């Protein structure tokens, strides 16, 4: 399986999945007092079922937690990931 690059586009409150230089998906969020609420994840149809969505979620949560922000899964992809990996539900200690 190929690896994607994940880019944080703070201006548009999203993380972008990039494969071979082209965007193939995104994970949208909004920051609140409670934490970073991930609202919608999408991978282009032709790239689904290759693990890219999981890579995007993991990288986005790693970045969020490293910034000391609590991740909150509103979209099913993030919510399911957090249920399977409960350690990701907490920000990292700074």
Features:
alpha+beta; globular; Aminopeptidase; single chain; five-stranded mixed sheet; 2 helices; 34% strand
Strand and helix layout:
Elements: E1 5-9, E2 14-19, E3 22-31, E4 36-43, H1 52-66, E5 71-73, H2 76-84
Parallel strand pairs: 4-5
Antiparallel strand pairs: 1-2, 2-3, 3-4
**Name of the CATH first level:** Alpha Beta
- Summarize model confidence as the mean pLDDT: 94
How large is the radius of gyration?
12 Å
CATH-level-2 architecture: 3-Layer(aba) Sandwich
Runs with pLDDT <50, length 5+?
Answer: none
Element string (H = helix, E = strand): EEEEHEH
Write the CATH fold name. Aminopeptidase
Characterization of this structure:
The chain is an alpha+beta fold. It has a single domain, classed as Aminopeptidase, CATH 3.40.630. The chain is 26% helix and 34% strand. The chain has 2 helices and 5 strands, in the order ββββαβα. Strands 1-2-3-4-5 form a 5-stranded mixed β-sheet, with helices on one face. The radius of gyration is 12 Å and the shape is globular. The mean pLDDT is 94.
Q: Quick gist of this model?
A:
This protein is an alpha+beta fold.
């Amino acid at each position: 399986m190929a690896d994607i690059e994940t880019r944080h586009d703070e201006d548009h409150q999203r993380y972008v999945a990039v494969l071979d230089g082209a965007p193939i998906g995104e994970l949208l969020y909004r920051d609140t007092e409670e934490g970073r609420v991930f609202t919608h994840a999408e991978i282009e149809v032709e790239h689904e079922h290759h693990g890219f969505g999981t890579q995007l979620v993991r990288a986005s949560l790693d970045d969020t937690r490293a910034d000391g922000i609590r991740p909150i899964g509103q979209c099913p992809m993030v919510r399911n990931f957090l249920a399977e990996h409960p350690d990701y539900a907490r920000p990292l200690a700074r």
